[in-house]
Amino acid sequence: MSNKILVLLLLSILSISSTFAQKVKKLKKNTPELKSELYYEIKKADSTLFAAFNRCDTVAYKKFFVDDLEFYHDLGGLTTSFKSELASFKEMCARGSNIRRELVESSLEVYPIKNYGAVEIAVHHFYHTNKGEKEKPSGTYKFIHVWQHKDGEWRISRIISYGHDSMKND
Fold it and tell me: What does the DSSP 8-state code read for residue 1?
């Protein structure tokens, strides 16, 4: 009799664990069931930041960075202050060709950083429009943003931008 109970108990455990495993498999990392409030906060901050970028709105753009920003770019190297980044941004906008950035939403990952903020990891597409021409794709690249949450504001303190094997801006 005890063997029958043991077998029934094992079968019950296997059945429950199998059902649970199937439910977990169905939930992928970017499904609504697994997205947090933090995920949506960072997604919104990212969207607002790059709306300013796409419009070359320096006033709105500069609100998203700490003064001691570090920007690591695989082709451009290291930028060690927001002042330098802002100068580069203004120069890009003054050239007269429009650059537009678009987040690949399905790639977006957000993770908390205890007592600091969050890290955003994703892929984005860039497009450019030279004067008198139609918009063309520049490329698809990867990035990591470290967001600091301080005084109720989200600001980027570190950027890593990589995967720029080829850039098409001509």
Answer: -
